[in-house]
Amino acid sequence: MIVHKGEISQVEDVRYPIGTFRFNGGIDAAQRKIWIDQIASLPEQLKEAVAGLSDEQLSTPYRDGGWTVRQVIHHVADSHMNAYIRWKLALTEEGPPIKPYHEDRWAELQDTEQEPIETSLVLLDALHRRWTTLIKSLPEAAYERTFYHPEQQKSIPLDVNLGMYAWHGLHHLAHIVVLKQRKGW
Predict the structure, then answer these.
(1) What SS3 state is found at 148?
(2) Would residue 68 count as lying in a domain?
(3) Tens of pLDDT along 127-150?
(4) Does 165 map to a domain?
(5) Any alpha helices (H) in 51-157, and if so which ranges?
(6) Is residue 138 part of a domain?
């Protein structure tokens, strides 16, 4: 559970410090606004979470066997770029199949290791500005549009995907915040 001032409490599983994403039925405009606000504010929250961390701290995994803070930041950028493209496809095509990717392999590529996190933080800021502009401009019916996820073998409505990515950003933000709390950084 996230609480004020960037602190996390009641962490039962460091893999899922805010729990797993759960979708419980209908999504209304009020719920969408919450998720849109979470997506819009994520880049600044990530910047604050990693501000002042040393190279050694950025190279620290958030859990045993987990990604480093650096990998987490670059992963969020990779993942959210994919999500944005999926939204554009769903809005311009009828139920398009999307291309899954191996996020674990992407996290091992050299750009993740060699590129400073600031590159992905700037990218996330610009990407989230465009994404939230797009999302806010949509008529109600557009949120029902879908894309097809071949690995999950199902169509995913944009409404549900919005919630998933709001959760996804907070999920990885919590990885960093919990690590900092555990390490006393």
Answers:
(1) strand
(2) yes
(3) 999 999 999 999 999 999 999 999
(4) yes
(5) 55-58, 69-92, 103-106, 110-114, 117-137
(6) yes
Tokens at 129, concatenated: 């500005």
Whether the per-residue pLDDT at 10 is higher than 80: the answer is no
Q: What are phi and psi of 9, to 5 degrees?
A: -125, 165
Question: CA 26, CA 32: separation in Å to the nearest integer?
Answer: 11
Please name every residue paired with 8 in a beta bridge, in sequence order, or none if there are none.
2
User: Do residues 124 and 131 touch, judged by C-beta distance below 8 A?
Assistant: no
Whether the pLDDT of residue 6 is over 70: the answer is no
The answer to whether residue 123 is domain-embedded is: yes
Domain of residue 172 covers: 30-183
pTM as predicted: 0.92
CA distances from 182 to 14, 52, 62, 135, 157 (A): 11, 17, 10, 36, 37
CB-neighbour burial class of residue 183 (10 A; exposed 0-12, middle 13-18, buried 19+): exposed
